[in-house]
Amino acid sequence: MPLPLLPSGYALVMAALLAISGSVDQSENRDPYFTPTAAKSTPYMPRLIIRNMREDRAGNIWFATFGGVIRYDGKEFANVSEEVGLAKRRIFSLLEARSGELWFGSITGGASRYDGKSFQKFTKTVGLGNNDVMWIFEDRDANIWFGTGNGASRYDGKTMTNFTTKEGLADNSVYAIAQDPSGRIWFGTQGGVCSYDGKAFSNLADQVGRPFVNVRSMVVDRSGCLWFGGQEGAFRYDGKTLATFTAKEGLLDDFVGSMIVYRAGNLWFGHPGSFPGGKRGGASRYDGKSFKHFTQRDGLSSLPVYGMLEDRAGNIWFGSADAGVCRYDGKTFTNFSATNPPRLPARPAQPRAID
């Protein structure tokens, strides 16, 4: 899988920090970038690389991290990776299905479904496209979609169906999935953006006259417009026209690694920034007319923002690469992580193959 267009000299480190995994057809192997936590439970969020966050219906916040699955109940941050069946794995993706079951996607370990008491594993051996699961999404028909290192997999509760470039997918490395009001499923991939209407795939590049690469985030706003982002900025597609947003239009930085639609209608964009130090990292908020930037000068705990979440109280949570997690209530930032510096993921003894 191609790396994003970044300055030379630190590709291996960025493979860990930006979580660019090789799309290698593999069995469940050791994850060389897994970062163990010092304790199973702590009042502080460990300073791990955080890829994603979700709030369940009980109000718990779940974190997908390089140290596994961490659950925050309002008092303690507990590593529950063993309980959900994904011990010693980086976790990239999270979902609470409408059924109440929780889904977790890992790197090298496939996916796991957890009902609060027991788990069920889904790997390549039982039909999953690949054991690297970067995204999990539930469509309006309750199908569970997995964005993997070897295409997209759809699970209807009984059967797994896989889609790759052979079926029309833009690229086999799938990073983000969304559904528009018409029911069309959209995929953000390393090689572009495409959609599936239940019968065939359509490549957005053919419709708007330009290609896309390394698309890392995707949402549908309240008006039904598709937003997606990656190393080339953020884009809005209304079904006919494409609008492009980069630093020239007001974004803090061109690279958009995450995005959420806030209940007030604003869009938030997370920027991982460059390595080292996360230069140009932070967050951008867009109200439909102008952008507001958030960095450490405003109270953000770290510049490299890797994931965001709006909780039921309207707070915005920011997950970082080097300082754990912080929360913004609209006025003040609260840091939930210990002040000790993080331990970066160890370099693997032998580099993994990258397609």
UniProtKB/TrEMBL annotation:
Keywords: Signal. It holds the Pfam family Reg_prop. Residues 1-26 form the signal peptide. It comes from the Bacteria. InterPro entries: Reg_prop, WD40/YVTN_repeat-like_dom_sf. This is Two component regulator propeller. It comes from Aquisphaera giovannonii.
